[in-house]
Structures are given as C-alpha cells and as structure tokens.
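Milestone 3.1: sequence recovery, worked example.
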C-alpha cells in the first residue's frame, strides 16, 4: 500500500524524536560513568573500588573504605590486647598498683613534664630542651669529689663524672645525670641509707638498663628534704619488690652493664644518682620515679654534713672545700663513722 506524503512526514518526525531520546540516554550514561570514575580515582588512587560503589556522591564514602577505617581503629597491640591509652603528657595511663598504698604517692598526672625531662624519660621530647631544664634543676658540674674518711680505699668514680657533657655519646644535647663507679660484674650494691623501694625497672631498649629507686625521708638521711637514690645498669632485676623497707647497707642488686650500648662495649659499673625535693609527694608512671618539684643533686653533695646542697652553691665553694668527707660501710659490715645515716654504695677497705 502506498503511503502518502503526510504520513511519511509524520513517521520521519517520530523516528527523529526517538533517535534523539536514545542518544540523550546514552550520553547521560557516559557522563555518569565518567563522573563516577573521576570520583573513584580522586578518593583512592591506589585502591581498587568494586563496581557497586560507582555512582556514589562526593559526600558519601565507599563501604570498603569505611570498613578499612573501622578495622584500623580496632588495631591491637603486639600481644593481641588493646593498646594502652595515653594521657596528655604521653605517659601510660596504667601505673604502679603497689605504689598507691605507699607514703607520698600521687598519680603521674600530678607531676609536671619538667620533672620527667629532669630524669630524662620524657616521651616525645629531648635534646636541648631537656638539657636546659636539667641545668636549671641542678645538673651542672660542681667540681666536688669524694675524700673517704680515714683515707679508706673505696671504689672510685671514673671519668664518667657528674653533669659532664654527653652530647658526643647521645648524638644530641645530653648531660650525665649521675656518676659511674666501676666494679667487677656481680659485686653487691648497697643501699646508701634507710628507705623504701619505690621503683624498679627493666628499661628494655634503653641505655640505663635495669634500675632501682629508693625513697628516703628526712629522718632517715638527716637531710632537710626527701631524697631518692637511683641505681642503674644492674645485673638483674632487684629481688626487693616495690614497698620493701631497706636498711642502710642492705644489698639492693648486683653490678653489671645492662642497658642498650653504643659502638663500644660498656664496662661493668654502677650509675649512681640522687634526686631530692622539699615535698613528700612522688609518682611512678611505670617507667621512672618522679619526685614532685624535684631537683638533681651532685651525689658527692649528698654526703655533706651541713647545708647547702644545691649545685649552684657547690659550684661556688672555695677550691679547698670541694673534697667531701664520705662515710662508708667496711667489709665487716660496720660503718664509719658509727652514727652515720649515709654511706657510699660499695664497701671500703
């Protein structure tokens, strides 16, 4: 049947409209795919995103990435347990449970960061700022040296003296916060005064090695403040648990060279340090003992019978006053002088 001109024109128009609509749909699909591909590439250029996320808006996050993010938040520690929470100071929230019952103990958050820098165990800091604070709090060379009573032969401090510059050893600004006294491996170390064990640490991965802290009140030392004797590089963990009451001369550990070493093998020696405070409060954050508003003392000054004891005053002493008479325990476990409240950390001949 022959189709008229009018009908042919109508068919052409309908076909044209249908073709245009089809082209429009194809273009929309192409644009949508290109936009989705651009979103995927910009959001995660190194990740493969499944085809089901194509078409998400820019305000939405692909389900795979959300799952990855949630999984990351639930990360666990080395032994499968959840990581310890950190406080604003960077210390572990867990502290010494035994310490809470001891005289003067306060939570670590009550001790300022300056004191952690003083003792050299501040997480997230170090170098020149630590040194600046340490100098202000007593770690300066004084020129003091021990003169053992009656000329006794006692283990001597070697070249690793009080407050010397340790930058060449540490690779950044550092000071020596005590004195080193070499002795053969296994030699017993003695408590320098009556006191209480308030800290003992393995210090794995650190240079100071196995350490013990003993707290001494003013009546025990005869000094007008609370003091803390610090012994490090021990052979093994001290058998004295935290809270133990010790008497002057008691063995608190054995000499060794424990701790992370540099290029040279360290000789067996005791690192001996003294910290002090006019306040009785102190803390143990699981890493170190920190006395409230504490200062460091030249260990030689610890044996002075009269004040002052601070490092600046010791620096200003006349040359003939720099030798400090030091009391000690003899090999037969008696003391010289007999009424002393403080002794050298090793017996003397």
């Amino acid at each position: 049947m022959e189709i008229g001109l009018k009908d042919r024109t109508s068919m052409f128009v309908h076909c044209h409209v249908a073709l245009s609509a089809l082209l429009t749909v194809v273009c929309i699909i192409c644009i949508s795919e290109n936009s989705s591909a651009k979103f995927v590439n910009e959001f995660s250029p190194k990740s493969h995103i499944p085809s089901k996320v194509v078409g998400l808006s820019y305000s939405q996050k692909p389900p795979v990435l959300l799952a990855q993010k949630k999984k990351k938040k639930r990360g666990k520690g080395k032994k499968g347990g959840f990581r310890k929470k950190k406080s604003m100071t960077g210390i572990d929230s867990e502290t010494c449970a035994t310490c809470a019952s001891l005289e003067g103990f306060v939570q670590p958050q009550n001790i300022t960061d300056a004191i952690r820098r003083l003792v050299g165990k501040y997480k997230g800091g170090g170098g020149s700022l630590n040194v600046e604070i340490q100098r202000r709090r007593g770690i300066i060379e004084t020129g003091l040296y021990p003169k053992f009573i009656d000329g006794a032969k006692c283990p001597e401090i070697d070249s690793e003296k009080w407050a010397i510059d340790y930058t060449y050893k540490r690779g950044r600004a550092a000071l020596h916060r005590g004195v080193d006294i070499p002795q053969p491996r296994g030699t017993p170390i003695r408590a320098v005064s009556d006191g209480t064990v308030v800290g003992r640490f393995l210090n794995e991965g650190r240079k100071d090695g196995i350490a013990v802290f003993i707290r001494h009140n003013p009546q025990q030392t005869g000094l007008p403040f609370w003091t803390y004797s610090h012994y490090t590089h021990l052979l093994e963990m001290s058998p004295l648990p935290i809270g133990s009451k010790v008497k002057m001369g008691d063995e608190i550990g054995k000499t060794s060279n424990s701790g992370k070493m540099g290029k040279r093998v360290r000789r067996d020696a005791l690192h001996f340090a003294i910290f002090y405070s006019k306040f009785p409060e102190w803390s143990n954050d699981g890493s170190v003992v920190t006395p409230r508003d504490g200062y460091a003392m030249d260990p030689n000054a610890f044996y002075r019978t009269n004040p002052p004891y601070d490092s600046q005053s010791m620096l200003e002493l006349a040359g003939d006053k720099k030798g400090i008479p030091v009391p000690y325990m003899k090999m037969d476990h008696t003391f010289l002088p007999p009424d002393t409240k403080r002794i050298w950390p090793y017996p003397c001949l």
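Confidence is low (pLDDT under 50) at residues 1-6, 22-94. The first strand starts at residue 145 and ends at 148.
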